[in-house]
Amino acid sequence: MQGNLLGKMENIGFQLIEEAKLLTLTLDAVDTSKIEGEFLNPDEVRSSIARKMGIENAEYIPTSRNVEGIVDVLLDATQNFKNPLTETRLFGWHNSLFQTGFSGYQQIDVAKYRSAGMKVVSGTFGREKIHFEAPEPERIRAEMDKFLEWFNTEDITTDAVLKAAIAHFWFVTIHPFDDGNGRLARAIMDMQLARSDNSKIRFYSMSNQIYTEHRHYNDLIEQTQKSDGDITDWLEWFLGCFEKALHASEQNLKLILDKARFWDLYREKSINDRQRIVINYCYDNYGKSFEFLRTGVYAKLTKCSTDTALRDLQDLVSKEMLQVEDSGKKTNYVINSPSDIKIPNTAERATCT
């Protein structure tokens, strides 16, 4: 599946490859942060990635410092995957995540290994549950030296995808930093997966799939860390998650191709900027942000009056770019998809992130 999808991606043309990378990296950045309880603005993330990658025709908007930080980490990990992973590089990634020196309201050690013990706990004060106790700080450098040497050594006896799974689990078990270990573990995972593809083209998002299963993900890491060192269950789960990520990528590729065919089909139609923004928004947020395209939704997205929104939508219907969907009380609009994909999508909204 991995090779088949990569082959398809490499043959769809430069512009669509850039669109696929933009979509995948946006999912990665947003969802690796969601796993840690941090909810980033997807539009900011998309804008930051597009600007840093020099993608033309993308909408650039102001972005916050925490968005810039995670984007810098992911781009370095996936676009410079052939470079060795060094202590200095890891410290740079950590600094990108915590540029103020604080995690929330707590000051932490930044761009250096932690200097104190680390326990992963939950529960209220006095009733804490210890999920994991990391190695003592004096062991970290030796453990990290071992890890980095292994990660940077090419091993033909270990499958490259399995190595990504092992690297993730090994790094998060060392837990070398005060905070950010999960995000950095997933960045290292993405770096190794890019090595397994031998390509900068990102066409699937493991973090997106992990987020949909994040409770089981956290439980399985805890169980494996407390076991006798047998990580088979973790590897099996990782491969299942990987397969689902590839399936999701198939759907994303269909959507990207449909969007390209749509604009090619209607390239001679004269439309305004508001109409173009909304159609692109429907494609780019398929199954994620809203269930229906209605007059009120259009007005909110484009910051125009409902009268203007209605005129714009009726104009798109007259040009056969949109279709009216009868839902009873209110008028819904859907894109006249060349591949008959329902956009906006309502049926799969509950299962898409």
Characterise this structure.
By secondary structure, this protein is mainly alpha-helical. The chain folds into 2 domains: 2-251, Orthogonal Bundle (Fic-like fold); 272-351, Winged helix-like DNA-binding domain superfamily/Winged helix DNA-binding domain (Arc Repressor Mutant, subunit A), CATH 1.10.10.10. It has 14 helices and 6 strands. The protein has helices at 2-10, 14-34, 42-53, 65-79, 87-97, 137-152, 160-174, 181-197, 206-212, 214-225, 232-265, 273-284, 295-302, 306-318; strands at 102-103, 106-107, 119-122, 129-133, 322-326, 331-335. Strands 1-2 form a two-stranded antiparallel ribbon. A two-stranded antiparallel sheet has the order 3-4. Strand 1 and strand 2 form a beta hairpin. Helix 7 (160-174) crosses helix 11 (232-265) and helix 13 crosses helix 14. The two termini are 22 Å apart.
Give the strand line-up of the largest sheet: 1-2
Mean pLDDT over the full residue set: 91
The count of domains is: 2
SSE pattern: HHHHHEEEEHHHHHHHHHEE
The portion of residues forming beta strands comes to 5-15%
* Major sheet size, sense and barrel closure: 2 strands, antiparallel
- Radius of gyration based on Cα positions: 22 Å
The top level CATH class name of the largest domain: Mainly Alpha
Structural class: mainly alpha
Oligomer category = single chain
CATH architecture descriptor of the largest domain = Orthogonal Bundle
* Tally of individual helices: 14
Low-confidence parts: 347-353
CATH homology superfamily name of the largest domain: Fido-like domain
Say what the CATH topology of the largest domain is: Fic-like fold
First-to-last CA distance: 22 Å
Helix content: 55-70%
